[in-house]
Amino acid sequence: MYGQIKIIKGLCSAIALILLAAFSAASLSAAQRPNILWLITEDMGPELACYGTPEVFTPVLDDLARRGVRYSRAFTVTPVCSTSRSGFCTGMYPTTIGAHQHRTGQRYKRKLPEGVRPITHWLQDAGYYTANIRKRGGRRFGAGKVDWDFLVEGQPFQGDNWEALKTHQPFYAQINFSQSHRGWQAPKKADPAKVVLPAYYPDTPPIRQDWAQYLDEITEVDGLIGSVLESLETDGLAENTIIFMFGDHGRAHMRGKQWCYDSGLHIPMIAYFPPGVARPKNFQPGAVNNQLIASIDITATTLALAGVAKPPKMQGRIFLGPNSQPPREYVFASRDRCDMTTFRIRTVRDKHYRYIRNFMPEYPFLNINLYKERSYPMIGLMRKMHAAGKLNAVQDRLFAMTRPAEELYFIDHDPDEINNLANSADPRHRAARTRLRGELNAWIERTGDQGRTREDPAIGLQVMQDALRKLPAAQLDDVRQTVAGQLASPGISPEYQKYLQQVRALITDAAAHPKRVRKRKRK
Ligand SMILES: [Ca+2]
Question: Could you give the CA distance from residue 352 to residue 272 in angstroms, rounded to a whole number?
Fold first, then answer.
């Protein structure tokens, strides 16, 4: 009996959702429904010329910002790929839908909760053609990345070919640009001597070169986006295609990606309405908009512009058009396990302050992560400088063996977030801390943060074991030395010490089981 009621209830809500979608879509005629294009750039902070960054050359995006609106305070809801993409794909906080562990692994992925779907499914029901572009002009174009930490039921996209857009309108399409992800190869344009480094990096030529190369990748992406805008023109799509350009999270530098600072969460974001689409009243071309935007708001706003009613559970806010919701006072973000490296960090930011809570302060900033050890040359370089006593106090802090339980930064005066005011006696900062602490607590409860239950540590150790076993002997030896160095570091906590001892045992295990490495070499 209960089962039958449940089925009937389920059917009723499904019918209601279909009717809702059909009614909303019907409120805009086919001709009125615009195409919507998301240009998603990998691992890219707001380091564009139009955001004031020197030595990056982004004439296309600077011009798009002049013709559209540039958002100066847009943030992702997590600082790493798969969780962030899970967020803006669904318009939900990954912590709410159980997609908060970066690279959950297929066997741990869960279905989305009832009433939560990828944006493409809402749009497909409303008659939109959906595509994640991988090909243009018969050639590979676009990474096609999705990287979601949940199981998708049904077809997430209907196509991957740019040419198909001409005959399938209205469309919603994504193009994912991977160039700004590490593995950098763009031609050198930025002058390393002229780039501006954050205060927590030592000013040395290799670090300047690394930063310059990152800027060159952004320059490269700008050119590719220029070619997309040309394709829109040549294919007759420019007049009725709305564009949202944004980064999937912040830059791939040490203390950037994977970290809940502006450097990991702040993204460039530009919205553009072509002449053929009625501009919302709250959209002023050429303006710089300073309101706080969360990446999940792009999702809710895209649905609104497509004439699809906001799904009741969607946490993103509509910020353009007649159904716009009040601007956010706060943006929130989370970080949990990234690959093998477990943390639980939550943060809230208003226009002036960022508050961070580290739920695992007994683990160091450089809690070992094989992906970063391998991909970020800066880590090895700074480790040597740390050992030689060549880092200043701010830079050296990255090597502390524990972290503060709370952090508070006054962004207006401290954009690099280096002066932790969590224990400040200044009444202004104390008031901000109390207020933001309360907001964060309320958000954790309100949104049902699933990180309140700690993941089984065996999962992180399993990921570590799998990764170690794939390492060539020389790299395994590097990891062994890093672990030995950390174990001998003053100030190490008993918790991290215990964890590293487990890692050390896994290194011994990996050295004894080099089967996979040899197998790989034969390929
Ligand atoms: Ca990414």
Answer: 27
pLDDT above 50 (res 297): yes
**Residue 206 is part of a domain; what is its CATH number?**
3.40.720.10
Residue 172 placed within a domain? yes
Interhelix angle 205-234/59-67, rounded to 10 degrees, is 60
| 336 CA distance to ligand 1 middle (Å) | 16
Q: Clarify whether 81 is annotated catalytic.
A: yes
- What is the rounded CA–CA span in Å between residue 220 and residue 41? 11
Q: Give the closest residue to 44 by CA, choosing from 299, 216, 161.
A: 216
308 Cβ partners below 8 Å, 6+ apart?
Answer: 21, 24, 25, 122, 123, 125, 126
Ligand 1 centroid vs 32 CA: distance in angstroms? 33
Q: Report CA(248)–ligand 1 centroid distance (Å).
A: 5
Is the predicted pLDDT of residue 327 greater than 80, yes or no? yes
How much is the pLDDT for 1?
42
Q: Rounded to the nearest whole angstrom, what is the distance from the C-alpha of residue 181 to the centroid of ligand 1? A: 7
* Phi, psi (deg, nearest 5) at residue 333: -155, 165
The answer to whether position 462 is within a domain reads no
Q: What is the DSSP string of 62-100?
A: HHHHHHSEEEEEEE-SSSSHHHHHHHHHHTS-HHHHT--
> Does 146 score more than 60 pLDDT?
yes
Whole-number pLDDT of residue 518? 47
pTM above 0.85, yes or no: yes
Q: Provide the number of structural domains found in the chain.
A: 1
Q: Which domain holds residue 102?
A: 2-319
pLDDT band at 523 (very low <50, low <70, confident <90, very high): very low
Q: Which of 81, 89, 260, 338 is the catalytic position?
A: 81
C-alpha of residue 144 to centroid of ligand 1, in Å: 12
- 3-class DSSP state for residue 149? coil
Q: List pLDDT tens digits, range 97-137.
A: 999 999 877 888 999 999 999 999 999 999 999 999 999 99
Ligand 1 centroid – CA 323 distance (Å): 30
